Amino acid sequence: MISAESLAVFVLACLALGATPGPNVALIVGTSLKHGRKAGLLSAMGVNVGLVLQLAVVAAGLSWVVDLFARHFDLVRYLGAAYLIWLAVMQWRGAGKSTTAPHTSNHAAFGRGFAVAFANPKTLLFHAAFLPQFVTDTAHPAGQIALLAAVFAVIALIGDIIWAVVADKARAALSGHFTKMADRVSAGILAGGALVLLAAGRR
């Protein structure tokens, strides 16, 4: 059983990671700014379904999946960065325009979140290296890693929901004459997420 001290340190580490913006947060914030809270929350759900699958891979000890991502590290992150840049361009070009198909946008938001969750191979490699550090009983690590993965997933989901809600509040404050500016800020955030991916290394 994992010790209370290790679990407490792990929770603090998860909170610190959740407060650090990355490509996932860029997508969630950008989506909320452009399409509103519902789309932002759906984007967060997509991101976290992808995250849970990554954590499940680590908890199940599927090292071949981790190795696959490691071998194609650059290809995956370049594709992810290109996708975020494409979203940023579309956002910029549509700045100030009303969303003509909100249901389509909401439906696509989940898929975008899920796709971007897998766009950064460093995330999966990070989980594979990060979680075992907090295992206190190395003879029976599987159950402890599963518990740590579940805790990480819950904290990440709560953090992403907060990002989506805060971004929607900012969108409401910038409504009216500032809608175009909000959309362009959203595009800039998405482009920033792409830059983070392009700058990501294995370490």
TrEMBL record:
<dbReference type="Pfam" id="PF01810">
    <property type="entry name" value="LysE"/>
</dbReference>
<dbReference type="InterPro" id="IPR001123">
    <property type="entry name" value="LeuE-type"/>
</dbReference>
<keyword id="KW-0472">Membrane</keyword>
<feature type="transmembrane region" description="Helical">
    <location>
        <begin position="42"/>
        <end position="66"/>
    </location>
</feature>
<feature type="transmembrane region" description="Helical">
    <location>
        <begin position="75"/>
        <end position="94"/>
    </location>
</feature>
<feature type="transmembrane region" description="Helical">
    <location>
        <begin position="185"/>
        <end position="201"/>
    </location>
</feature>
<protein>
    <submittedName>
        <fullName>Transporter</fullName>
    </submittedName>
</protein>
<feature type="transmembrane region" description="Helical">
    <location>
        <begin position="145"/>
        <end position="165"/>
    </location>
</feature>
<dbReference type="GO" id="GO:0015171">
    <property type="term" value="F:amino acid transmembrane transporter activity"/>
</dbReference>
<keyword id="KW-0812">Transmembrane</keyword>
<feature type="transmembrane region" description="Helical">
    <location>
        <begin position="114"/>
        <end position="133"/>
    </location>
</feature>
<keyword id="KW-1133">Transmembrane helix</keyword>
<dbReference type="GO" id="GO:0005886">
    <property type="term" value="C:plasma membrane"/>
</dbReference>
<keyword id="KW-1003">Cell membrane</keyword>
